[in-house]
Design a protein that fits this description.
VC0802-like, alpha/beta, binds magnesium ion, 9-stranded mixed beta sheet, 6-stranded mixed beta sheet, Rossmann fold, binds adenosine-5'-triphosphate
């Protein structure tokens, strides 16, 4: 008898010929995430990944494995031979441990026979194991098949696996299986969530932040670095670019109508992000934009922003409600940092009445008053890059 973690991965099993690639990547990512536990060993079987603990405590391995993208759920399990007596002993031990963890009065045993040659079918295994548990805890437990306090799962394959806990993961695809994207990371609530969602779909993240130092503070920059650090818990490391937008903002303020200030700033962010992306082999931009949330995110404004670049722009939050975005930010751990009250580069010169329905031709006309290439070049010359790790 020994102890393993069962790692289930759902969607990857739908991948046809590429399945092996996704599975191997997931194993690699699990190994990286769990590299502080040198005794773990891994194998793929039964459309899952098994992690043999070899004496490592299950709890920290379980919590860390659960947050690796691609993982649908994890279970700490006892692995034993398929001999009925051994399975029964493991099931009784599993029940006993569960009773130590919390108050349990009712249970059921649920079995799955992966090996069709096994002499008992799934129903019979469940019934027999249930009977063994009942005999052992006579007077303490009763069976409830509909709403039990505890379900003891038994899977009979080439080994038997016995477990009672399933810790949900985030699902998605293994990090690094979908190419690389550049996240426009502000200090707000939305953009970290947008980046997290794309990383969950397998995209490697790099991030770019625009500040208006000295009008925005060093603290505001540190806040963004902290957000990147939280994201790096899911992504291992994040390359973060800082760009000073102040010269561009000053030029816009001098030469363009006030109501277009935000939308023009946004277009310059896109121009610069697209160049940084191209230079660093990022194949998409990612923003936290959300339809009609603010003046710069109406359909017309998004069109004007979008027209600044050719590269695909992903906006995973586009149709989400703010409350749902906040819930997600809390779940992934970025919310508390996002609400720290440091100024953002866009709020520094916020127009009183920003255009809510800008027309592209008109915006382009006004933009022509600026020396676009020189401004972009000057901003890029000041680019600062940091590698952010957990
Ligand atoms: P967030 O919570 O992400 O700041 P928001 O509601 O404040 O979003 P805006 O300020 O209009 O929205 O920004 C929309 C998107 O533009 C952000 O989600 C982000 O992707 C990008 N963005 C805005 N400001 C910056 C910045 N200073 N640096 C990098 N990207 C930015
Ligand atoms: Mg913002």
């Amino acid at each position: 008898m020994d102890h393993v973690i069962i790692v289930r991965y759902g969607e990857i099993s739908l991948k046809g010929r590429n399945r092996g690639f996704f599975e191997d990547k997931l194993v690699d990512n699990l190994k990286l995430r769990l590299q502080e536990y040198p005794n773990l060993t891994y194998y793929k079987k039964d459309s899952r990944i098994y992690i043999e603990l070899n004496g490592t405590p299950a709890e920290p391995v379980l919590t860390k494995a659960a947050v690796v993208f691609g993982v649908v759920s994890v279970s700490p399990a006892t692995r034993c031979s398929t001999q009925f007596d051994e399975i029964a002993a493991a099931a009784v031990a599993e029940t006993e441990n569960a009773m130590k963890r919390g108050k349990i009065k009712t249970f059921k045993a649920q079995a799955k026979r992966g090996d069709k040659k096994y002499p008992l079918d799934s129903q019979e295994i469940g019934r027999e194991i249930g009977a063994c548990i009942l005999r052992r805890f006579d007077g303490q437990l009763t069976v409830d098949v509909h709403n039990p306090d505890l379900t003891v799962y038994v899977e009979v394959r080439d080994y038997a696996y016995v477990y009672s806990q399933k810790v949900p993961g985030y699902g998605g695809l293994p990090y690094g299986t979908s190419g690389k994207g550049l996240l426009l990371l502000s200090g707000g609530i939305d953009s970290p969530v947008a980046g997290w969602m794309m990383a969950k779909r397998g995209l490697i993240l790099e991030a770019i932040h625009f500040h208006s130092y000295p009008f925005t503070s060093e603290r505001a920059k540190e806040k963004v670095e902290e957000l990147a650090r939280i994201l790096s818990l899911y992504c291992r490391r994040i390359k973060l670019y800082h760009i000073n937008l102040l010269e561009i903002q000053t030029a816009i303020r001098e030469k363009c109508p006030e109501e277009l200030f935000t939308i023009l700033s946004r277009r310059f962010m896109m121009f610069i992000a697209a160049r940084v992306a191209a230079h660093n082999h990022c194949e998409a931009l990612i923003t936290g934009e959300n339809i009609s949330q603010v003046a710069s995110q109406t359909l017309q404004s998004l069109h004007v922003t979008n027209a600044a670049v050719d590269i695909p722009v992903f906006r995973p939050l586009i149709a989400m409600d703010k409350m749902d975005i906040i819930n997600m930010a809390e779940k992934i751990g970025t919310y508390e940092t996002s609400i720290l009250p440091y100024e953002d580069c866009c709020t520094v010169f916020l127009p009183k009445n920003p255009a809510t329905k800008p027309r592209l031709e008109k915006v382009l006309q006004h933009e022509a008053a600026l020396d676009k290439e020189a401004l972009i070049k000057s901003a890029l010359d000041g680019l600062e890059c940091k590698i952010i790790t957990p």
